[in-house]
């Protein structure tokens, strides 16, 4: 979808002051694309000259109840723009969730029920408020204007876009070429997301790089409805703990923003030294100058772990507290020295003597007996601090502390 097709004649120029230049730098930090940048500069200049905040939209479909820190990349950008004095709109796609976003999909996404959407939306906003300032955030649901459209309104909306241009969308084109089914209702999703921008009179819409087609649809439809087209800002998708795939619960390479502080801190410390700098850029609230100075220190010989600890403490403190971040650091250091954390789960089992693999599985430390055996082979299992190598070991009645890997512990009482 070509951005140039929604270009509009240039508006009267407003002065580009130092404050406008600084706002542009904030906008560009970590972003993948800002289109069209010249239009955004003029919007920023107009906002400063007239004292009228810009309307900045982020739409999220509550397809799952929890947010991980990969989702906060765009939320962080929203907060930065919010702190510049602009009006941010947290749009919950309760209507579009019932269609299902086809972005990046090779099959039709199953729609959610209204009950699932309502429950997920409540959790989403509560978690997003850990990043955004709730007092300065406009919360909207796109069912407000989507449901009243009705059949005739939907037909009129669909008439504003062609099938040929819809098929320019990468995932549709690939599915069509491979003869993978595309349901007609999936064409409605980008149209409805674009109509959200019309309803909200959005000046800027944010999204991941996978949302570019949908964001440009908003520009197109605003022009169709006689509005000044929004600019679009896309943010990169954050690689997860493995440094390879984008952060995802299904890949188990994520850091949940509501998970315990100790776990959050330890997970962040596990990322590679190379990935750390991208995380700094996209997740930290440190200035770019501060990050550059820190990177220079590391390149000059400072231990990269020192920088990683700063990142882990900043993010842990954001979603918990500074005290919790300090305690998480102390807990991590204690574990690194072979110590046992204070707050480990307690498990009671019966049927002594019990095989070690069964104990590990029953205590929730491994997913299966075979995984337990593999961990023993890799010297990854300790009982009361001693490495276990005997896969046939049976534990008698009593209480022991069982450890798998560096972070999993359980106090097990066997009767």
TrEMBL record:
HAMAP family: Tyr_tRNA_synth_type2
Official protein name in the record: Tyrosine--tRNA ligase
UniProt gene name: tyrS
Enzyme Commission number(s) of this protein: 6.1.1.1
KW Nucleus (keyword) present: no
Organism: Roseateles subflavus
Domain RNA-binding S4 span(s) in chain numbering: 354-415
Chain span(s) of sequence motif 'HIGH' region: 62-71
Keywords assigned by UniProt, alphabetized: Aminoacyl-tRNA synthetase, ATP-binding, Cytoplasm, Ligase, Nucleotide-binding, Protein biosynthesis, RNA-binding
GO molecular-function terms, A-Z: tyrosine-tRNA ligase activity
A Pfam family per the record: tRNA-synt_1b
């Amino acid at each position: 979808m070509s951005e140039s097709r929604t270009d509009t004649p240039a508006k009267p120029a407003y002065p580009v002051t130092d404050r406008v230049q600084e706002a542009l730098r904030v906008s560009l930090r970590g972003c993948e694309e800002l289109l069209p940048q010249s239009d955004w500069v003029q919007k920023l200049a107009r906002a400063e000259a007239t004292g009228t905040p810009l309307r900045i939209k982020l739409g999220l479909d509550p397809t799952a109840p929890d947010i991980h820190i990969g989702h906060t990349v765009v939320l962080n950008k929203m907060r930065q723009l919010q702190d510049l004095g602009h009006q941010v709109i947290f749009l919950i796609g309760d209507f579009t969730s019932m269609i299902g976003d086809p972005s990046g999909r090779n099959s039709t996404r199953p729609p959610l029920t209204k009950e699932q959407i309502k429950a997920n939306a409540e959790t989403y906003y509560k978690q997003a408020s850990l990043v955004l300032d709730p007092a300065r955030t406009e919360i909207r649901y796109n069912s407000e204007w989507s449901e009243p459209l009705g059949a005739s309104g939907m037909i009129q909306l669909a008439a504003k876009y062609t099938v040929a241009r819809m098929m320019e969308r990468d995932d549709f084109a690939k599915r069509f070429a491979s003869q993978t089914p595309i349901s007609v209702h999936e064409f409605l999703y980008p149209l409805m997301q674009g109509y959200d921008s019309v309803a909200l009179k959005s000046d800027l819409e944010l999204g991941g790089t996978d949302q570019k087609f949908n964001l440009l649809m908003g520009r197109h439809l605003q022009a169709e409805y006689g509005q000044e087209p929004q600019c679009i800002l896309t943010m990169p998708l954050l690689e997860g703990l493995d440094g390879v795939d984008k952060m995802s619960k299904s890949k188990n390479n994520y850091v949940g923003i509501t998970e315990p502080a100790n776990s959050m801190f330890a997970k962040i410390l596990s990322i590679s030294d190379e990935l750390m700098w991208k995380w700094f850029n996209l997740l930290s609230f440190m200035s770019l100058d501060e990050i550059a100075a820190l990177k220079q220190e590391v390149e000059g010989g400072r231990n990269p772990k020192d920088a990683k600890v700063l990142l882990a403490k900043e993010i842990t403190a954001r979603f918990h507290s500074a005290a919790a971040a300090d305690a998480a650091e102390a807990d991590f250091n204690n574990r690194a020295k072979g110590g046992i954390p204070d707050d480990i789960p307690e498990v009671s089992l019966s049927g002594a003597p019990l095989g070690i693999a069964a104990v590990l599985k029953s205590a929730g430390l491994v997913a299966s007996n075979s995984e337990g055996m593999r961990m023993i082979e890799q010297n990854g299992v300790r009982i009361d601090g001693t490495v276990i190598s005997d896969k046939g070991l049976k534990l008698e009645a009593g209480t022991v502390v069982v450890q798998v890997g560096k972070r999993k512990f359980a106090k097990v009482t066997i009767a």
